[in-house]
Amino acid sequence: MNYLPHTSEDLERALSVIGVESIDALFADLPESLQKPELDIPEGLDEVSLLRHLRALAAKNKAPQANFLGGGLRQHFIPSVTPHLAMQSEFVTAYTPYQPEVSQGILQATFEYQTIMSELTGLPVSNASMYDGASSVAEAALLAVRHTGRRKVVVSQGVHPESRAVLATYARPLGIDIVEISLSELTTPKPETMADAACFIVQNPNFLGYLEAMPPLAEAAHAAGALFVAVCDPLTLAVLAAPGDYGADIAVGDGQTVGNPVSFGGPHFGFMVVSEPLLRQLPGRIVGETTDRDGRRAFVLTLQAREQHIRRSKAKSNICSNHQLTALMAAVNLSALGPQGLADVATKSVQNAHVLAARLAEAGLEPLTEKPFFNEFAVRTPVPATELRRALAEVGIAAAVPIPEAYGLGDVALFSATELTTEDDMTLLTGALGRILAVQGEPVLEASYD
């Protein structure tokens, strides 16, 4: 860096507090070969040669012929209008719209995003988005702790493992106790006790793809004086009951499925929508509607409870920004689809997933349960799921997300289908599975050869 603000005295004081003699000592745990590696940097290239080199590198990324991956992210159709509008220069900015007189476009777009998320979830107050689904789960738990004054959070094992890991990271330094409820027959049972719990967090559909009985779980949370946090995929809300309809106090999740490409895992955005009593505890910005001095409709940043530069130590959250551009992509996408279009995408995804489950069952890979699922389901694999996924990737098929060992299910993988999945994709998958397993001495899929 050309500019380092720290003086030698600053560095000495910091090292003294830490208790080490030099900055190099901070990296002592790294292997010597990584501390000062030999860098084989080639000579510079002219622009034409550099572009040719970069295109060659990009060409190494091979898109799968068929995609059955789920486990948190899924590939859905995104119409051309979505990136076209979302990538307008007015939206592609990192600048926070503090000055409404010059920011009406992005403020209105954000207001429309909040309105859409409120309509989907059935809850009245949405913020202007979060980083991702995992951080929104953790922030919901912190909100519940602030609101109730309790310091215990109950979470279902059906919540995505990555979200639970982020929740644990947030909770540990704050002394918040995390109690995990194990699944029973692949869904969440009523907890035996939730005494002193700030909230109960349940995901629907859960990480394994299966639908949870949310109303009785919400009732159990409220009976214990706890808030009920529903973690949901917004696409499913086109056909499933909205969190507000079954008594959820907070709805959170990842919005990737309603307007963001998979993009090798991100960036996406998280959302949080709450009941009105929780308004003042909501982290993040809220855009509100008002009128200007001439009586015309206008938009402003109404609430910024999380802003540490304004409220300092009283801030509800110290997240410094959100993923507003990716949230606006979802707003554009949902507006383009409309309620019926979104329902069509959801319905077709469900239909294709059930056809896929039947095709795999006919070939010998039975789903773990007959419990209802949305568009992901778990299948027992005759070989380790990680090996199966790798073998499928080698023949151009993205499928079989391994289920973590913590679930105690053995060799099990998630399969998913969306509205983009075709009969040809399914035939390609079952044929490849047959060949792969036959080679490995498990000829259970011979009937599905092409």
Question: How does this structure look, described?
Answer:
The chain has 2 domains: 66-75 and 338-448, Aspartate Aminotransferase, domain 1 (Alpha-Beta Complex); 81-334, Type I PLP-dependent aspartate aminotransferase-like (Major domain) (Aspartate Aminotransferase, domain 2), CATH 3.40.640. 35% of the residues lie in helices and 14% in strands. The chain has 450 residues and is of the alpha/beta class. The strands form 4 sheets. Strands 2-8-7-6-5-3-4 form a 7-stranded mixed sheet, sandwiched between helices. It has 12 helices and 14 strands. Helix 5 (104-121) packs parallel to helix 10.
Short description:
This protein is of the alpha/beta class and 450 residues long.
Question: What is the strand and helix layout of this fold?
Answer:
Blueprint: H1 8-18, H2 32-35, H3 47-58, E1 66-67, H4 81-86, H5 104-121, E2 125-126, H6 133-148, E3 152-156, H7 161-171, E4 177-181, E5 199-204, H8 214-223, E6 227-232, E7 250-254, E8 270-274, E9 285-291, E10 297-304, H9 308-311, H10 324-363, E11 376-380, H11 385-394, E12 397-398, E13 401-402, E14 412-416, H12 423-439
Parallel strand pairs: 1-12, 3-4, 3-5, 5-6, 6-7
Antiparallel strand pairs: 2-8, 7-8, 9-10, 11-14, 13-14
Helix pairs in contact: 5-10, 6-7
